Amino acid sequence: MSGEDGTRTTSGERVRPLLVLPGDRLPDSGGKLPGLSTYGDNGILFSEVVGRPRDLDNRVSVLPGRGIYSPSRGEVVLGRITDVGPAVWSVHIFCPNPATMHIRDTPWSIELGRACDFLVPGDLIYGRLISVDDLGRGVIGLKGRGFGRLSGGHLLKVDPMLIPRLVGKDGATISLLKELTGLRVLLGQNGLVWVNGDLDRTMDLVNVISGIEGMGLYDEIQERITSLLTDGRDADVRG
Amino acid sequence: MVGMLMFGDERMGSDSKGRHDGRSNEKLRGITIKAGVQGSADGSAYIEWGKNKVMASAYGPRAPMTDEKYHDAKAKVNCTYTMAPFSVSERKRARRDRRSTEISKVLSEALQCSVRAERFPRSVIDVEVLVLDADAGTRCACLTAASVALADAGIPLYGLVSACSVGKAKGELIVDPDLEEDQKGEADMPVGVLSPSGEIVLFQMDGLMVKGEIEEALKMAYKACEEVLSLQRDSLVSRFGGQGLSVRRPAHRRYGEYRSYRMGSARVEPWKEDDTPVWDEDPEGVD
What we know:
By secondary structure, chain A is of the alpha+beta class. Chain A is built from five helices and 14 strands.
């Protein structure tokens, strides 16, 4: 991790990072705009979750340690079909309100009333939220490269706030995970991880993710992943 | 059994000054809070407050059931207070009673004030508090633990809610009365405070106090709530950041510095000197 996170200085010396709790006044927030997970009161910004403060483009945000998935347009999610109608599926995406998917938002040519021939309750899909209304009810589309129905594999449920940490900077962490395990891994921003491949490697990945979930906000994930996956059997994993 | 013998010696009725356990009037019982103790819940906390032991779990937000009340524009907080059958000296029947219903209601309203509910329209947040061992002051312990559980679940909050009760025994105000002081005392006043605004989200009183005593008791409650808040913060820091994290002191408004009280959804201006007192005279002579 770099010095911007407050864990290390340029000389590599360990410093005490800042963790804000709900109701804490955010440091250096005077005259700045409230970002994610913050609220303002008379020009003063406060945190509304436990997390790390982040100042970016005159806007102060807090990166939560744990959190609730709140759908936004454009996010990539994994979901499970819960109901099917003539033209619309209901999809559970692990947020308070269910999402829907219309037959016209799929890459297939489906006649009205034949939706159940393509996806049935219990099927797992990987898609993108193309719109979200004021009540947080999303509409999913499957058009796009890599999107569609998933078959086989294992589905893991993790904290949604862990997903950005699993992705890492420019996808570095997830690339490392894929390289070390040789698995096919898909991350949904709603806190679901789909894994397909060798069962032993899958169990390794489950152990790694469980270990990461228990780590502090400022611990260094990539070092931990490497040590967990290569500990004692480096040649085996990489081979 | 030792506790029962102490209970029977009628110390509270004696003329001796001081509290039976040797605490000063402003001192809290020993408090231990641990966040994130239950794997199956979205957020959880365990608190030991003197002899009280309480487990709090937070779930949600979730979509409301078909027959469940909900708000269109914001989330609704449902808190359920349950006492385990073995939590009191005489086995308690495992069913909902009037007291549990009342405490569930006041805890729900207190927590509702602390949650940024407008972030989750038309949804429900569940908080379950289970009293494993009871020794007076359970609603304060439950509110304190429930607030930590909500923060542990990552639910957006205006701030943490810390609570403490102030009682009156032998004519003196005492912070955090235990079971013996609660049963033999003259009054008990649980107070819940939301940081950083210092708004009161829980205020109840059982017994009689004069106006000046209530003012003094509120000051003592605010001071005690600051101590509880500090322990809540420590539990969350050790849960999320490991050791060695620097923590900013809360911008906690002290008693007398706040502009107004907020009890439930109603906003009440603070008392002024010329306001009608609660009691015109000492309530000793009141039937």
